[in-house]
Write a sequence for this structure.
């Protein structure tokens, strides 16, 4: 049996693309190596843009049913203890364990008519008159007219299709779940020189702590030792975590942050992290994955209707993706470059603490509810950086 579309990877990008196409009447297969619910290394933070997209898919009741923590803003803390706490200029964020979020998205895809194939690891991809993916040990194969590869940052499909990129020697992450945390849901970002940590307090007594650290800190150390080293560089986080107890093993992944070109080939499109990953510093990955899944589905539907599934015919997806996500990625890189300089970070955080309109602009742009121009404009940057005394940091 040959489907119209085979989507590989049932994360936010793959489930969104698959559901959109199936709801439009196309025959869609969605294959994932995992059996759901499955864990995924993540900070578990859906920014306001992602939450808005999830709301547009009608998923707020399902999120609320699994104790999702909804938050109205964020706290950002520098390594010297300086901090600002600000509300988002629009919408709210959502803190939800990825195994729950992705299971909700998968169920929705199924309800839209997608045929789900769990426990199917794609090992090979062959493109000729159709696309065939195969699981080597079992010899099982799936076929379709078009492949959407949404199999994450280590995309096997992208590698097999020759859509390769060299992963940078970037930061790696180490994280775990902790218990013994009172209080309501809250999102916190701790900044240090060249490293950072995100905390999602779910409001149910547990939290996810996820650190992004230079690769060198992982060499010759166990994940526990690396985590301890990272927390030591973020004194406010260390203090906050004193009474907490770890309730899950540490998860390590990386390198974080890379781009991949091209994102289309004959009968193939890359979506979500498979097409490139942004550093999780600004918490935009889920938002980008949902968005790129939708963009891929819209372009796929047009190409399927025309019958031309060549790389040339699929190029409008690459162009739309670059137009929609490109400026956001540039903004994110600028924010990372500024936020992780040890001499600058504390002064920057103090300036944002006394200029709430600048802090709201930053949270809005990184939260995907304001355009990146809110931060990339000369006016914003001058107001942010003017009078910034990095030496007092
Ligand atoms: C440490 C860390 C923290 C992060 N924190 C945040 C955060 O707080 N907020 C945020 O918005 N973003 C965050 N991100 C980014 C976010 O997790 C990703 O951008 C997002 O998950 C991408 O979604 P996706 O659908 O493209 O891929 P994924 O969510 O990675 O899903 C890929 C799917 O493909 C499947 N798969 C992989 N290989 C195969 C194969 N060979 N065959 C079949 N199936 C396969 C996997 O099982 C998986 O289900 C974080 C990332 C990391 C690494």
């Amino acid at each position: 049996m040959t489907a119209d579309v085979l989507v590989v990877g049932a994360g936010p990008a793959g489930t969104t693309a698959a559901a959109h196409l199936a709801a439009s009447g196309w025959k869609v297969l969605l294959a994932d190596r995992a059996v759901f619910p499955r864990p995924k290394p993540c900070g578990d933070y859906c920014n306001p843009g992602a939450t808005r997209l999830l709301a547009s898919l009608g998923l707020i009741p399902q999120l609320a049913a699994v104790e999702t923590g909804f938050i109205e803003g964020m706290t950002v803390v520098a390594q010297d203890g300086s901090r600002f706490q600000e509300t988002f200029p629009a919408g709210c964020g959502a803190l939800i364990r990825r195994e729950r979020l992705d299971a909700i998205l998968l169920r929705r895809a199924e309800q839209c008519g997608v045929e789900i194939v769990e426990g199917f690891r794609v090992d090979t991809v062959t493109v000729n008159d159709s696309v065939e993916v195969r699981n080597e040990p079992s010899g099982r194969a799936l076929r379709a007219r078009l492949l959407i590869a949404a199999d994450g940052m280590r995309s096997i499909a992208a590698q097999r299709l020759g859509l390769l990129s060299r992963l940078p020697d970037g930061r790696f992450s180490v994280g775990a779940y902790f218990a013994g945390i009172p209080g309501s849901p809250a999102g916190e970002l701790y900044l240090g020189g060249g490293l950072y940590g995100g905390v999602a307090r779910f409001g149910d007594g547990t939290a996810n702590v996820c650190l992004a650290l230079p690769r060198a800190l992982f060499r010759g150390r166990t994940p526990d030792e690396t985590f301890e080293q990272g927390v030591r560089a973020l004194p406010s986080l260390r203090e906050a975590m004193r009474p907490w107890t770890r309730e899950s093993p540490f998860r390590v992944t990386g390198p974080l942050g890379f781009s991949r070109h091209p994102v289309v080939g004959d009968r193939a499109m890359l979506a979500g992290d498979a097409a490139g990953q942004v550093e999780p510093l600004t918490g935009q990955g889920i938002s980008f994955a949902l968005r790129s899944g939708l963009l891929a589905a819209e372009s796929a539907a047009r190409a399927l209707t025309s019958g031309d599934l060549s790389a040339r015919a699929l190029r409008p997806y690459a162009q739309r993706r670059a137009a929609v996500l490109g400026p956001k990625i540039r903004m994110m890189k600028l924010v990372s470059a500024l936020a992780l300089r040890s001499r600058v970070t504390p002064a920057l955080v103090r300036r944002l603490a006394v200029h709430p309109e600048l802090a709201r602009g930053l949270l809005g742009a990184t939260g995907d509810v304001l355009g990146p121009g809110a931060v990339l404009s000369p006016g914003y940057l001058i107001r942010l950086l003017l009078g910034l005394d990095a030496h007092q940091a």
Observations:
- The CA atoms of residues 143 and 277 lie 27 Å apart.
